[in-house]
């Protein structure tokens, strides 16, 4: 068997193969039996769960750090194109579960689609998810580039497919960003190859050029250009302009997908590169520090001015992306973990917020659910949903009871302080305040008592049915599952953050 | 260990349950919520008392990836603050029973009070620097809800402004403190407050100590608050409901000074020594500024808030002296201010509800004529506030000035003595504004518009606090003996 060019371990590749195979099965099924809806969702969810189950073995729970599983290795003990260690597996698990939750959110909208549209949407989601899981494990330039684009391009179609005018402009913004980003990433890949002479994105490849000081600036340039390219996907300022357009234009579940899976894919790609250069003992990356500081500041200030909740969440994504890359300003292994931990906390809280909005769309209609002012008195009208939303917002703000967000903030600041980047740390502190202002502005509306004069008369509730039960009855069960799952996950990880942070390994 | 967990779990569970039960189809009634809350506070107080006596220690893994451990313990410095917190938590519930909250579901109100108590207790129990920060943050959102939902609703813009200002200032302070804590932990290699105190900054360079101490002091000064970072305090106190004002003044402000002792003075003696003169100047500026503001302020609640700024100035002066006496004075003044400000805010909150406003310019019935109990409590409260010997306020201020007159050898003697002279002037101003308030609302012979005197729960709370003012004034050793041993351990190196 040693004649094989590369070794292949299919079990290890399952997190990538499962969603890809799911997408293929759905397309084939759609050809054979047309106009299926529910079957497609079931197949998709199953394939995502199979992929998620395959990642569990790689999580860092109680395992020795640095224990990585490899496949697609070159013969005679050469480098491997696919490495799944605890960080990779955790990001893959997060991407797969996020995609599953996104599908749960889009299930109720299914009847709005044209016949046959379901198969397209579901398979596009699966394809993008396969790209996200692949880029997390990719360790060679080719796979890295292709997987990152696979994670991006389907989202353009997903945004556009709704066909509304705002969706088209959002999709165009996203497509433009994706193209520019691809150009930059291809340039970065070329520079990396020039600097290291290797097609692998690994520490071994990076260390090979240490002896030649003239190539070091090229490597730095490669990293900076890659940061710019990935900055588009992570919505970092100044590459963020597409974000509010695309979020606002896209159907709600797709906006959640953009905020979740796309961000995981982008960070996974960035981490692959940062981890490759971390052993070089690189000085702090000023590029990341500046981009991070500007992103959080602009994102928070713009979020403070929004009156629509989707746009608010879009700008909050910009600000949070700044926090996600904040620890990476200090290039180190602990910074990689901190960044991953912050991303997980952000994705979980944002998903809960989107799930609650999706539930409110079903109860109150899209116009009311998207307008910040219409959240007045939500706590009185829908206490359960409002409590879940409050938890999500407080987690994003990083204040107890959203202890997960607080812990994420501690983790993100730590590498910055360890590297003595005092100015960046103080800017981050002021942004923590701005962020609190953003989310409390929303929360204040939610908890304030509704204005009795403006209150719409409540629809008649049959005797013996409590208002809460009536509320629950009108939300699609899939949405309820999504709200319930994310809310429970957020509560559990707030009580015991180790369950989430520990997955990344030590 | 069970004692500690029970003391924290009861307010956590009761608070969450109350908040959740205040909603839905059959919300909890105000009376039941009060009763449940009272039982929870009493049980918590019992466990806190038991923990103070038994001194249990908890040390458990919580977040090994970040090296954060659940470390809780009690020592002589935290014990008086723990008892103060637990006792006042019972008091606010009893008081709210006779003067119920307005503005929203009563269950949520009591739930938030329980969570504030949880945060304060956890802060004083915490023995891990990061857990200290996490606990510090727990009080924020419940207190924000108390101010923004249950505060004075006559001016909604002012209310939103006050609650927002409170939370934003405090978050800025605590995030700066977090950066300082992370730097401290990184520099000294441990997050355990006991290990940090034991190391006394060994192995840390002077400039590192100064940077870290500056970050921590700025962060904590917002919480204390120290002039000129106090601007969030007067609006928050003015708008907050009575229970909120009491918890804010008597408990939350103490977390700031407690943090200075634990995080700055003990582990960073050299860094604090370098910054102490500036810290002392700001403290004394606060004494004068607060006192002058009180002389002209016409809103009674706001006046007491400014007097808090002045009182915390004495605490800052004591802390800055660098001596054992100074630290003792600061910790005693902390407790004294807790008792006195609680008494005054209970009184003034009750008066504001009776009068409909807290404006001093409006002519009202003299308290000594229509409500002798309120009047008597007010006299005791202001007498203690101006530092009359024999009452609780005297010892903290007197010892703080005494210690600053004879500061640690590395402090600038002349500057500290000048500051003491100015602080004495500030104490004179305090006498002035106290007598002004008493003249305006206590004396005189108007009997209209009449209002009811304190009775029931309100009177028993006031009576207990008046007794505490007298008892601690006559026997300050109750607190001083508790803190003496641990304070001596901290200052052994400093005063050398």
Please supply descriptive tags for the structure shown above.
heterodimer; A: 506 residues; mainly alpha; two-stranded antiparallel ribbon; 21 helices; 2 strands; 71% helix; globular; B: 496 residues; two-stranded antiparallel sheet; 20 helices
Strand order of the largest sheet of chain A: 1-2
Instruction: Flag low-confidence runs of chain A.
Output: 453-470
* Structural class assignment of chain B: mainly alpha
Q: Radius of gyration of chain B in whole Å, from Cα?
A: 21 Å
| Average of per-residue pLDDT values of chain B | 88
Tell me the number of strands of chain A: 2
Largest interchain contact: A-B, 46 and 39 residues
Overall body shape of chain A: globular
- Largest beta sheet of chain B, briefly? 2 strands, antiparallel
Oligomer: heterodimer
Distance from N terminus to C terminus of chain B (CA atoms, Å) equals 36 Å
Shape verdict of chain B: globular
- Strand and helix order of chain B: HHEEHHHHHHHHHHHHHHHHHH
Strand content of chain A: under 5%
Strand order of the largest sheet of chain B: 1-2
Order of helices and strands of chain A: HHEEHHHHHHHHHHHHHHHHHHH
Q: Outline the low-pLDDT stretches of chain B.
A: none
Judged by helices, strands and strand pairing, the structural class of chain A is mainly alpha
How is the main sheet of chain A built? 2 strands, antiparallel
Helix count of chain A equals 21
Number of domains of chain B: 1
Protein described:
The complex is a heterodimer of chains A (506) and B (496). Chain A has 21 helices and 2 strands. Chain A has 506 residues and is mostly helical. Chain A has a domain at 283-451 and 466-506. In chain A, helix 5 (141-160) runs antiparallel to helix 6, helix 12 (309-325) packs antiparallel against helix 13 and helix 12 packs antiparallel against helix 18 (422-447). The two termini of chain A are 36 Å apart. Residues 453-470 of chain A have low confidence and may be disordered. Chain B is mostly helical and 496 residues long. Chain B has one domain. Chain B has 20 helices and 2 strands. Chain B has helices spanning 2-21, 30-54, 78-98, 106-125, 129-138, 140-150, 156-188, 193-199, 206-223, 233-239, 242-265, 269-296, 300-320, 324-355, 367-370, 372-385, 392-405, 413-442, 456-474, 477-495, and strands at 57-63, 68-73. In chain B, strands 1-2 form a two-stranded antiparallel sheet. In chain B, helix 7 packs antiparallel against helix 9. Chain B is globular. At the A-B interface, helix 16, helix 17 and helix 18 of A face helix 5, helix 6 and helix 7 of B.
């Amino acid at each position: 068997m040693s004649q094989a060019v590369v070794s292949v371990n299919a079990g290890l590749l399952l997190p990538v193969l499962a969603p890809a195979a799911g997408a293929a099965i759905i397309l084939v099924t759609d050809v054979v039996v047309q106009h299926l809806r529910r079957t497609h969702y079931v197949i998709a969810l199953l394939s995502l769960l199979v992929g998620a189950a395959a990642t569990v073995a790689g999580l860092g729970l109680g395992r020795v750090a640095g224990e990585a599983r490899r496949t697609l290795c070159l013969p005679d003990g050469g480098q491997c194109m696919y490495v799944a260690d605890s960080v990779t597996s955790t990001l893959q698990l997060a991407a797969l579960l996020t995609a599953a939750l996104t599908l749960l959110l889009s299930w109720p909208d299914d009847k709005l689609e044209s016949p046959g549209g379901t198969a397209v949407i579901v398979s596009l989601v699966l394809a993008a998810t396969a790209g996200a899981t692949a880029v997390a494990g990719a360790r060679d330039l080719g796979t890295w580039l292709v997987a990152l684009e696979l994670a991006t391009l389907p989202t353009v179609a997903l945004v556009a497919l709704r066909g509304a005018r705002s969706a088209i402009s959002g999709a165009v913004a996203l497509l433009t960003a994706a193209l520019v980003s691809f150009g930059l990433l291809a340039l970065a890949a070329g520079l990396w190859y020039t600097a290291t002479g290797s097609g692998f994105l690994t520490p071994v490849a990076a260390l090979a050029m240490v002896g030649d000081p003239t190539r070091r600036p090229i490597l730095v340039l490669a990293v900076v250009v890659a940061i710019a390219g990935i900055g588009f996907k992570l919505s970092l300022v100044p590459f963020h302009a597409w974000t509010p357009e695309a979020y606002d234009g896209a159907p709600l579940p797709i906006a959640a997908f953009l905020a979740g899976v796309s961000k995981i894919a982008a960070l996974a790609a960035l981490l692959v590169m940062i981890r490759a250069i971390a052993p070089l003992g690189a000085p702090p990356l000023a590029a990341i520090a500046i981009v991070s500081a500007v992103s959080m500041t602009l994102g928070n200030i713009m979020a403070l001015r929004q009156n629509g909740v989707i746009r608010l969440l879009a700008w909050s994504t910009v600000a949070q992306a700044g926090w996600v890359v904040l620890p990476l300003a200090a290039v180190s292994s602990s910074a990689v973990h901190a960044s991953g931990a912050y991303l997980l906390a952000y994705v979980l809280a944002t998903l809960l917020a989107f799930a609650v909005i999706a539930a409110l769309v079903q109860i109150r209609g899209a116009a009311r659910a998207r307008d910040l002012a219409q959240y007045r008195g939500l706590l009185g009208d829908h206490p359960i949903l409002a409590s879940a939303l409050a938890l999500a917002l407080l987690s994003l703000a990083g204040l107890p009871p959203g202890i997960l967000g607080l812990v994420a903030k501690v983790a993100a600041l730590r590498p910055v302080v360890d590297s003595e980047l005092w100015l960046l740390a103080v800017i981050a502190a002021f942004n923590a305040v701005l962020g609190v202002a953003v989310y409390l502005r929303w929360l204040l509306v939610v908890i304030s008592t509704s204005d009795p004069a403006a209150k719409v008369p409540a629809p008649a509730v049959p005797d013996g049915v409590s208002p809460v039960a009536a509320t629950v009855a009108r939300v699609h069960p899939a949405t309820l599952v999504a709200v319930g799952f994310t809310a429970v996950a957020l509560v559990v990880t707030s009580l015991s953050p180790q369950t989430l942070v520990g997955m990344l390994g030590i | 260990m069970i004692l500690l967990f029970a003391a924290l779990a009861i307010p956590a569970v009761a608070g969450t349950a109350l908040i959740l039960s205040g909603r839905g189809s059959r919300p909890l009634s105000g009376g039941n919520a009060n009763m449940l809350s009272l039982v929870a506070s009493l049980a918590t107080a019992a466990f806190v008392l038991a923990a103070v006596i038994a001194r249990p220690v908890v040390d458990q893994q919580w977040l090994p990836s970040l090296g954060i451990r659940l470390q809780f313990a009690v020592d002589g410095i935290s014990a008086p603050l723990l008892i103060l917190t637990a006792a006042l938590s019972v008091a606010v519930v009893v008081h709210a029973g006779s003067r119920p909250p307005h503005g929203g579901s009563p269950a949520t109100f009591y739930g938030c009070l329980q969570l504030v108590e949880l945060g304060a207790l956890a802060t004083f129990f915490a023995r891990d620097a990061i857990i200290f920060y996490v606990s510090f943050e727990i009080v924020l959102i419940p207190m924000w809800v108390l101010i923004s939902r249950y505060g004075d609703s006559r001016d909604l813009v002012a209310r939103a402004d006050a609650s927002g200002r409170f939370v934003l200032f405090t978050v800025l302070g605590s995030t700066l403190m977090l950066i300082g804590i992370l730097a401290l932990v990184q520099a000294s290699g441990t997050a355990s407050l006991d290990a940090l105190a034991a190391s006394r900054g060994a192995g840390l360079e002077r400039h590192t100590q100064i940077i870290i101490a500056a970050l921590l002091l700025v962060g904590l000064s917002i919480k204390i608050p120290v002039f000129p970072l106090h601007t969030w305090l007067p609006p928050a106190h003015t708008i907050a409901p009575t229970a909120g004002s009491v918890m804010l003044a008597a408990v939350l402000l103490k977390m700031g000074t407690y943090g200075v002792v634990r995080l700055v003075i003990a582990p960073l003696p050299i860094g604090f020594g370098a910054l102490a003169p500036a810290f002392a100047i700001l403290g004394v500026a606060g004494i004068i500024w607060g006192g002058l503001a009180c002389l002209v302020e016409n809103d009674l609640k706001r006046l007491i808030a400014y007097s808090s700024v002045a009182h915390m100035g004495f605490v800052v002066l004591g802390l800055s002296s660098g001596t054992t006496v100074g630290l003792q004075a600061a910790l005693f003044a902390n407790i004294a201010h807790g008792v006195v400000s609680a008494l005054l805010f209970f009184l003034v909150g009750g008066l504001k509800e009776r009068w409909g406003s807290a404006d001093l310019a409006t002519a009202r019935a003299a308290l000594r004529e229509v409500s002798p109990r309120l009047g008597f409590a007010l006299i005791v409260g202001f007498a203690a506030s101006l530092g009359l010997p024999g009452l609780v306020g005297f010892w903290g201020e007197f010892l703080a000035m005494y210690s600053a007159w004879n500061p640690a050898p590395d402090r600038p003697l002349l500057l500290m003595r000048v500051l003491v002279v100015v602080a004495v002037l500030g104490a004179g101003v305090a006498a002035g504004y106290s007598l002004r308030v008493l003249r305006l609302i206590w004396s005189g012979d108007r009997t209209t518009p009449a209002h009811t005197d304190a009775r029931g729960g309100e009177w028993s709370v006031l009576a207990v606090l008046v007794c505490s003012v007298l008892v601690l004034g006559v026997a300050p050793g109750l607190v001083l003996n508790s803190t003496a041993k641990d304070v001596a351990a901290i200052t052994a190196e400093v005063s050398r």
